[in-house]
Specification:
It contains ten helices and six strands, in the order H-E-H-H-E-H-E-H-H-E-H-H-E-H-E-H. By secondary structure, the chain is an alpha/beta fold. The chain is flat.
Length: 185
């Protein structure tokens, strides 16, 4: 159904915002004739980074941000460093990489729901790194990872929001827009 839905616009990129979904979409060609569908799949941070207009210069608040790179970025068409490159345009952002020994957060699709003991054990090193760094926010481009990490932070009673990198980018755009409206009044 996806291939048929996008068949009429065969040259248009297909952008995904959830790395697990992008991983699946990018593998369609492995098990069916996809008419080039898989080659059009683009991770949203990669797409924004590749198409960033040179004349856009934005400011942002000083923030320490920990970037969690989902395991699903290892096998799909996304570039592991695209979100970092996209956000490195902002001088006031201090970007930290999640550097636990085993960077998997343990969400693994539905694993966090059906095997939560293993899932939580896999998440612990990532949470420990977050506790050590105490960032202003955690970013992850996989919705399952974001939910699983947010729940772990809630259980640890840490008030650290977990967002998609593009959500932070949208916040920066919104803050700049509000700032320019205040300056023009």
């Amino acid at each position: 159904k996806n291939i048929l839905a996008f068949d009429n616009i065969q040259t248009t990129p297909i952008i995904y915002a959830a790395t697990g979904c992008g991983d699946s979409l990018g593998k369609y060609h492995d098990y069916q004739e996809d008419k080039g569908f898989s080659s059009r799949i683009n991770e949203i941070c990669q797409f924004i980074d590749d198409n960033w207009p040179e004349n856009i210069h934005l400011n942002c608040q000083k923030q320490k941000v920990l970037m969690h790179t989902p395991c699903s970025m290892d096998s799909n068409s996304g570039n592991r460093s695209a979100a970092d490159r996209m956000l490195s345009r902002f001088k006031n952002l201090s970007l930290l990489a999640s550097t636990s020994d085993y960077s998997c957060c343990g969400a693994s699709g539905t694993k966090m729901l059906i095997d939560f003991n293993t899932s939580n054990t896999l998440r612990d090193p990532v949470l420990n790194h977050i506790k050590k760094e105490l960032p202003d926010m955690v970013l992850s481009s996989n919705i399952g990872c974001a939910l699983h990490l947010a729940e772990g932070l809630r259980q640890a009673q840490l008030d650290v929001p977990v967002k998609h990198p593009v959500s932070l980018l949208a916040d920066i755009f919104r803050d700049n827009e509000q700032g320019s409206q205040h300056r023009s009044k």
